[in-house]
Write a structure and sequence with these properties.
Layout lengths: L2 E2 L1 H7 L4 E2 L15 H11 L7 E7 L2 H14 L6 H17 L2 E2 L6 E6 L4 E6 L2 E9 L33 H13 L3 E6 L8 E14 L8 H12 L3 E9 L1 H9 L3 E10 L5 H11 L3 E5 L12 E15 L2 E8 L5 H6 L5 E2 L2 H5 L3 E12 L3
Parallel strand pairs: 1-2, 3-4, 3-5, 9-16
Antiparallel strand pairs: 5-6, 7-9, 7-10, 8-9, 11-14, 11-16, 12-13, 12-15, 13-14
Helix pairs in contact: 2-4, 5-6
Length: 370
């Protein structure tokens, strides 16, 4: 005969022996400890800012076997321990936390283990959209581990574990952690510029994901000012607004057009007429480009077809020119100029008949955003 407490008996309406809550074969008294459990959870959450929460629970082992048996015997139809426990705990927490229970993107999710009474808390990440300018060269977009030691630290990286001392991701992320009191961060960019290239103009769209934030209700204008002060002019952020997880996918797949300014040096002096003819040959055309040799060690060897748009000559003096180039996202500009030993065609070098290379590169506009 089943031994049930009065709450489980009232819920199941099944013949049983009534026992004290702690002897109940199903809830083991958990349904009688909702106040105590909610107090413990509320204490754990007192450092967090949030508006919504969700309660879930796990049932497995002998308890699940018993519920499966009852389901076959009487058909639980929403009368399971999980449903009852989640409902009662949600109601009690809503009172104590002054927050709204929801199953749609809650700020906080509480998962309770009914087999071995305990709980875990999952904090929804915070997503913040903005644009960044990188005003100095020699900074990667994201953390770049040392390839020799894979981040462990060695003589090559001066025991830092990193190929470059810092990154756009770290400069923005570390400052934001101070404000949102999270445990980590990930920067999602709309494309990326080379380490030796600057990102100027209106900046590159990005979303930074703050993991396990304790603070959510922050004035983003104040965040912007704080981060920009911390980065000391190396990186500047602007136009911050809160975003959603789906915005990350859009940002990474959108493929916004980009405008570049490139300083180009030629192997010999070229005339203005020669340069203008070569520029026309690679403007408003499809460029077939194999993965550049300089990144083959970390990227698949693929053939990409990208379009150039308007290309202007901003300055030309003998062996040096400055070009403004508008192109599809994903077109490698250095190789558009050099040809990369025939892996990019057409190229400026091929059209000109003179080897050329980019000596300085800036991204001056990314067209698009959220």
């Amino acid at each position: 005969m089943l031994k049930l407490c009065t709450k489980c008996h009232r819920r199941l309406r099944i013949y049983c022996e009534l026992v004290r809550p702690e002897s109940c074969m199903i809830c083991s008294g958990l349904l009688w400890k909702i106040d105590e459990i909610s107090d413990e959870i509320a204490e754990k959450l007192k450092e967090y800012e949030f508006e919504t929460f969700s309660v879930g629970s796990r049932i497995y082992g002998s308890l699940k076997a018993l519920e499966d048996y009852l389901n076959e015997l009487i058909g639980l139809n929403g009368k399971s321990l999980k449903v009852q426990f989640n409902r009662e705990l949600s109601r009690k927490l809503a009172e104590k936390l002054n927050a709204k229970p929801t199953h749609r993107d809650p700020d906080i999710t509480i998962i309770y283990d009914l087999e071995n009474p305990s709980f875990e808390i999952q904090i929804r990440p915070l997503y913040i959209y903005g644009r960044y300018k990188k005003r100095v060269r020699g900074i990667s977009q994201t953390r770049w581990l040392c390839t020799r030691c894979d981040g462990k630290g060695c003589e090559v990286c001066n025991w830092s574990g990193k190929k470059y001392p810092t990154s756009v991701e770290e400069l923005i992320g570390e400052a934001m952690l101070e404000i949102f009191r999270g445990t980590g961060y990930i920067l999602h960019g709309s494309g990326r510029e080379d380490v030796d290239a600057r990102m100027l103009g209106s900046g590159r769209p990005f979303i930074i994901e703050i993991q396990n934030p304790k603070k959510r209700f922050v004035d983003l204008k104040e965040v912007e000012e704080f981060v920009n002060k911390k980065t000391k002019g190396k990186v500047v952020i602007l136009d911050l607004k809160f975003a959603k997880p789906k915005d990350v996918e859009f940002l990474k797949s959108a493929g916004f057009r980009k405008v570049y300014r490139a300083k180009v040096e030629f192997e010999r002096e070229v005339s203005r007429k020669e340069l203008e003819k070569a520029v026309r040959a690679i403007s408003n055309t499809i460029i077939e480009q194999r993965t550049p040799k300089r990144v083959l060690h970390r990227r698949a060897d693929l053939l990409r077809k990208k379009r150039t748009y308007n290309i202007e000559i901003l300055l030309h003096r003998g062996k040096v020119a400055v070009l403004k180039i508008e192109a599809d996202s994903g077109l490698y500009i250095k190789e558009l100029v050099s040809g990369d030993e025939g892996r990019t065609r057409p190229s400026l070098s091929e059209a000109l008949g003179v080897p050329a290379k980019v000596t300085k590169l800036d991204v001056i506009e990314v067209k698009g955003g959220l």
